[in-house]
Amino acid sequence: MRILTPFIAVLALIAVGLVAAQVPGGQALIGIVLPYLAFALFLGGFAYRVMQWAKSPVPFRIPTTCGQANSLPWIKQNKIDCPSTKLGVIARMILEVFLFRSLFRNTKAEVHEGPKLVYGSSKFLWLFAILFHYSFLVIVLRHMRLFMDPIPGFVAALEFGDGFMQIGAPVFYQTNAIFLAAIAFLFLRRVMLSNIRYISLPADYFPLLLIFGIAVTGILMRYVFRADVVAIKQLTHGLTTFAPTIAAGQISPIFFILQQADAHGRCLHEPHPEHDQQQPDGPAHQSVE
Amino acid sequence: MYGKGRIIPALILFLGLMTSPIWYKSGEASKMPKPEKPKDYKECVAPTQEMRTSHMVLLNEWRDDILREGGARTGKTPNGTEYIRSLQNGCMKCHSDKKKFCDACHNYTSVKPYCWDCHLQPKEAM
Amino acid sequence: MAIMKADKLGVSVAKGPSMMTGAIPKNDWWDVPAEFKPGKYCYPAKQEIHEYHQKSLPKELGGQPRVWDPESDNWLLPEGWEAIILNGLKERLDKFRSLKIFMDCCVRCGACADKCHFFLGTGDPKNMPVLRAELLRSVYRNDFTLAGKLLGKMAGGRPMTFGVLKEWFMYFYQCTECRRCSVFCPYGIDTAEITMMGRELLHLVGVNTNWILEPAANSNRTGNHMGLQPHTFKDNIMYLCDDIEEITGIRVEPTFNRKGAEVLFITPSADVFAEPGIYTAMGYLLLFHHIGLDYTFSTYASEGGNFGLFTNNELMKKLNAKMYAEAKRLEVKWILGGECGHMWRVLHQYMDTMNGPADFLQVPTSPITGTRFDNAASTKMVHISEFTADLIKHGKVKLDPKRNDHRTVTWHDSCNTARAMGLLDEPRYVMQNVCNNFHEMPENTIRESTFCCGSGTGLNTDEIMELRMRAGLPRANAVKYVRDRHEVDTLACVCAIDGNALVMEGEKERETGLRFEPLAGMEG
Ligand code: SF4
Ligand code: SF4
After folding, report:
1. Residues 6+ positions from C225 with CB-CB distance below 8 Å
2. What is the CA radius of gyration of chain A?
3. pLDDT reported for residue C342
């Protein structure tokens, strides 16, 4: 049930996209109205959430200390895990937000006869989480070629680096493959590990399935159903300049499916990590000063 | 609201970043590329829309077919016009100006085909 | 009998069907009701204890005093208790940003799941920190988020019902607020804080435990958990002095409530009352005598521990305040604190913005070595192991580690000093100087990853012994590891209560010599 419902929801979204793309006005709805709406919802929701958090005070300084504190001068302080200066706090936050440091500590406990407990290192979650988020980031940045004109150098450089193996035409991006593999891992992990499955909610499967759907439709569009990139850019770039045009007949329905999913994805997906991570004082480090 | 001093600027920075494509060179309306079409020819090897989306696949097919499978050098359009399956001697015969044809769209969408890593670039481009 | 039981328990931990041994529960967690059976819960507060608290704290914080039975289906909750809880939750969300964020940002990645000693020992899914938090979070989602209001169960929301309340009472009292889970959480979600909030909410409707409220009441009335009155407190310490004289021939003369002393010394009352804490206290007395410290005890602030931490913020604040009130009254310069985990948690993480900063005191400076403790510049309170490490570093105490050669020692980091303070290397430095045979437990079980003894936060009560033993398993297991490997026979730790638990835990395996080693091995 917990997996089925979000799965059906994602399929339904795709179906809606497929149908809407065929009916008159549907393309404009999915290609223009929904993206604006979703983007506004996302930005508004994000700001709202941060402001909601900011409304509550932080009466106590309660960060978990994960290393030797600043104490006697001859005892070596762990300046990052138990910071006593602003710089240390910032370093701790940066490591946490960009490198998922806490996740890197992950271990796996097993109980054996005795009873004996053993703890093994378990860094796969960290690895795939990093792969997932960074390929996501690269993919989003790559897509900036469709939203910006002239295309900034870093976007072009990213694309070049990402496709440097020069396999096939259009060229194959390794982040696409890594991204799919990472989502698959994260999804399978949720389904296969009995305790993770037990704690998972529909709200946890939904974004995974949705993002998976977006990735797959995106890849299909690039390699199988072949979208007209120039026409797409005309639309997407049009969106950013508030002068969207849909070139009739040049954009295949698959694009609309993608858009549809993407649009909804963005607004619903909001509680997800990346967004929280941008939060200026991440929970782990609440005003450690 | 607590911690305004840090949260509001950070939030503004975030919103600014997220909407940067809007601010970015926002003055210029989007310039659609207008690839220059050859004047003397009416018909391409496949319908226009298909060429727009899939010419790179076609080129790859030609390459593989001719170089690896020993396929034919010539092909026929649906209308029966014969053409040479070749980038330099086929495509570029009609679309002779790389800058005005190929590059127009490629630059617009940031596509960097590696055709010219091996093939001689047409003179105009050099 | 006892040994039989421990054996059986061991088999049940390793083999019994539980999530730790790979069994998959048939029902979703929200469909598994909490069942109260003897041994699974702490006894509710005695009515008179509860009434006592009602006299001194805002009434609404404690709910209605009454006699009630957790095993029954009627807990005699007040009229409209659901609303009381929801309002209480709202109030706390508005008061603590941490709670709001912890409620919002969990992604159920499960990194915390197998980090909790209660989960490792019981295999009960609801002892995975994430589910413990979900017990509260589900209610939060249902009533405080848009998704929950619109989608209800689909969004993981649950209305506040008696069944939910029962789960809270069960599982917020199977968490020792040790914070080990928070070390591994990518968001730094601190389930200990969630447990605290859960317990506060339970108190609002009069659901509480005696083992916490009684010491808190004692502490409020006489200054310490044991309820020792001033003269008894003094007598107890004097007995210890007699013992010391008998053993060492040295007469130590501590003072009480002496105005103008340089340092006020505060330690958990367990140290002056019961084994093994008294060994620690004897160590203190000898040490202070030896270095000629100008200090005094207070018979009013005769308790470092603060059971208010396990009850609600107001009580915590009140109990903490008396330490400072006494420091002011006695006109001391600063406070030296003995061993007690959660006393240091309160001090290090709450005190400064709760009752502090203590500007009327001076930045602690060791009168013996002249070292200024700048890290305590705001709270004005120094931990005994920092103080001692400094003494040793300056060669102010003569130590003969050979006297401890018959012992092989390991060190148990107390959760609170490790994860709420970062006090890790000071005690180790002391250890290295007092004994020659020191071995660490495995890496995953020490320092910031230290395992709780299983008996913190007022869960050291005998009615839940099996639970405590299960919860103590991960720690005991690590101790056993070093014992097998290095023949470690002495476990040194910060706090008597920790220690107590471990003796009991350890008994099934062997005798644990338990004493605050660093100080006990150091005589004039
Ligand atoms: S580690 Fe943190 S985010 Fe992951 S399930 Fe536990 S509390 Fe939630
Ligand atoms: S704070 Fe400790 S006892 Fe509580 S859930 Fe976390 S690991 Fe378990």
Report:
1. C215, C216, C218, C219, C268, C269, C270, C303, C305, C307
2. 22
3. 81
User: In which band, very low, low, confident or very high, does the pLDDT at C258 lie, cut at 50, 70 and 90?
Assistant: very high
Of A125, A202, A285, the CB nearest to C111: A125
Average pLDDT over residues C155-170: 94
> Nearest residue CA, atom 4 of ligand 2?
C175
Interface contacts (A, C; CB < 8 Å) = 229
- For residue C279, pLDDT beyond 80: no
User: What pLDDT shows up at residue A270?
Assistant: 42
Query: By C-alpha distance, which of C109, B6, C447, B18 is closest to A93?
Result: B6
* Residues in CB range of C162: below 8 A, 6 or more apart: C75, C77
Provide the b/e sequence for A184-215 (b: ≥16 CB within 10 Å): ebbbebbeeeebbebbbbbbbbbbbbbbbbbb
Q: What pLDDT, on the 0 to 100 scale, is given for residue A258?
A: 54
Q: Using an 8 Å CB-CB cutoff, list chain B residues near A287.
A: 3
Residue of chain A whose Cα is closest to the Cα of C114: A109
Size of interface A-B (CB pairs under 8 A): 105
Q: Which helix (H) or strand (E) holds A110?
A: strand A107-112
Mean pLDDT for C29-43 is 91
Q: Using 50 as the pLDDT threshold, list the residues of chain A that sit under it.
A: 260, 263-289
Q: How far apart are CA C312 and CA C200, in angstroms?
A: 5
Nearest CA to ligand 1 atom 4: C109
- Banded pLDDT at C312 (limits 50, 70, 90): confident
Cβ-Cβ contacts under 8 Å, A240 against chain B: 21-22, 24, 26
Looking at this protein, which amino acid is placed at residue B98? K
CA nearest to A207 within chain C: C107
CA distance A123 to C121: 23
Among residues of chain B, what percentage have pLDDT more than 70? 91
- Confidence (pLDDT) at C174: 94
Cross-chain residue pair A58–B2, CB shorter than 8 Å: yes
Ordered by start, the domain boundaries in chain C are 7-208, 214-523
Q: Which of C378, C494, C489 is nearest to C446 (CA)?
A: C494
- Of the two residues B1 and C449, the one the predictor is more confident about is C449
Closest ligand to the CA of C134: 1
Structure-block tokens of residue B34: 């207008």
Average pLDDT of the residues in C183-198: 94
How many Cα atoms occupy the beta-carbon half-sphere of A3 within 13 Å? 12
| Contact residues for C93 (Cβ-Cβ < 8 A; gap 6+) | A56, C99, C100, C103, C140, C144
Chains that contact C by 3+ CB pairs under 8 Å?
Answer: A
Query: What ligand has the least distance to the C-alpha of C194?
Result: 2
**CATH 1.10.600.10 holds for A4-58+123-276:** no
Residue C364's pLDDT band (cuts 50, 70, 90): very high
CA C421, CA C316: separation in Å to the nearest integer?
Answer: 18
Closest CA to C24 of A261, A29, A66, A192: A192
Cβ contact, residue pair C14, A76, below 8 Å: no
User: Do C312 and C200 touch, CB atoms closer than 8 A?
Assistant: yes
Q: Could you state, in order of their start, the residue ranges of all structural domains in chain A?
A: 4-58+123-276
Q: Which atom of ligand 2 is nearest to the CA of C452?
A: 2
Phi and psi dihedrals of C164, rounded to 5? -65, -45
A115/chain C closest Cα distance in angstroms: 5
pLDDT tens-place string over residues A47-87: 888 888 899 999 998 889 999 999 899 999 999 999 999 99
Compute the mean pLDDT over every residue in chain B, rounded to the nearest whole number: 83
Report, in angstroms and rounded to the nearest whole number, the Rg of chain B calculated over CA atoms. 22
With the most atoms of ligand 2 within 8 angstroms of its CB, the residue from C175, C199, C416 to mutate is C175
- Residue from the list A54, A111, A283 with its beta carbon closest to the beta carbon of C21: A111
